[in-house]
Amino acid sequence: KAGVTQTPRYLIKTRGQQVTLSCSPISGHRSVSWYQQTPGQGLQFLFEYFSETQRNKGNFPGRFSGRQFSNSRSEMNVSTLELGDSALYLCASSPQGGGTEAFFGQGTRLTVV
Amino acid sequence: QQQVKQSPQSLIVQKGGISIINCAYENTAFDYFPWYQQFPGKGPALLIAIRPDVSEKKEGRFTISFNKSAKQFSLHIMDSQPGDSATYFCAASGSGTYKYIFGTGTRLKVLA
User: Fold this and answer.
1) Which one of B3, B36, B46, B99 would you mutate to disrupt binding with A, by most A Cβ within 10 Å of its Cβ?
2) Can you give the pLDDT at residue A100?
3) Helix (H, G, I), strand (E, B) or coil at A99
4) Does A1 score more than 70 pLDDT?
5) Collapsing DSSP states into helix, strand and coil, what is residue B35?
6) How far is A103 from chain B (nearest CA, A)?
7) Cα–Cα dist A87/A42, whole Å
8) A19 CB near a chain B CB, below 8 Å?
9) Integer Cα distance of A93 and A33 in angstroms
10) Does the N terminus or the C terminus of chain B have fewer Cβ atoms within 10 A?
């Protein structure tokens, strides 16, 4: 079974730009959640989608958004990038979401300059 | 109530020794407690997980001990090996929360 695939692996963007990250979950998994990982804040929950519906959202500004498609693939978008958005963005795939096992992708390393 | 507190922040263990990492949670709605292992440049990998209906779960050299009344759980790595050197995260989740709350991580170094 293929694992969670995140693309691209690395990104360098300029302040003010926007970026879209992609996540393909494990086949059959309907829940996709996103996390931001930084050395100072650790793993912070961004949002979770299940069958194209956002079920939960973390404490991030509205510049962070996401969506899920009918094939369970998910994208997250960050608009008006700030230097503080530099982080490893991780996608987790799960059969049902919270309370069940979740598998992470390799992440997308975003650097904002 | 949403926090998961993890200790120690870093740990150095001799090869063959036992590594112990502790976590404490507050929200009694949590009913799933996984541990993840993360190597530099990689995403976290699910190591082992436990639910509150059991007090201990063992998989190979990795054991989770769970104390429901104290709202604490811990990871024991027996016969620690240099290849175990990584950052370990505990987490907590509930079936109605649709998210995982992570501890702050423990950087483990196993000396050869």
Assistant:
1) B99
2) 84
3) coil
4) no
5) strand
6) 6
7) 10
8) no
9) 7
10) C
